[in-house]
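Attaching the record inline, Q. Sequence:
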Amino acid sequence: MKIMLINSAKFENREQEFVEKLTKLGHEVLYTSGYDELKLDSVSWLEYGNRMLKKSIKTIQNMDAVLCLNFDKGDLKNYIGGATFAEMCYAFEHDKKIFILNDIPEDSESGPKIKFEIEMFEPIVLNGNLSKIL
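Structure, as predicted:
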C-alpha cells in the first residue's frame, strides 16, 4: 500500500522510525510534505505552510492511504493540528484510507474541538499497531 505520513511538524523527528517499520511490513511510504524542507530561510511560516499544504494535496491524490502520527504535544494528548486535519479532510474527499496511530484526541478547553469531525472521516485507529494497516 502507498502511504503518506501526515503529522505536526513538531513530530518530524519521529517519521524515520515509522517509515522503516512500515517499509518492513511491505508498504511504500512517503514522509510528510515538509520533511527535510528548509523551514525559515527566506520565507515566512505562512508561506512555508501554504507551500507544504499544496504539496501534500498533490501527493495525497496518488496515495492509497494517509497515516496520521499523533503524539502528545505539551498538555494536548494525541495532538492533531489544523494542517493535519486539512490533509485528513482531503484524503477523505478522495476516498483514501485514513489511519490514525493513536486514539483520536478528546476535545478539551485548551485544544481543538474536532473529535466529531475526525470521527466523520471513519478513520482506522491503530492504537499503535501498524500491522492493522491492510
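The chain has four helices and five strands. Residues 2-132 form a domain with the Rossmann fold fold (CATH 3.40.50.450).

More tomorrow.
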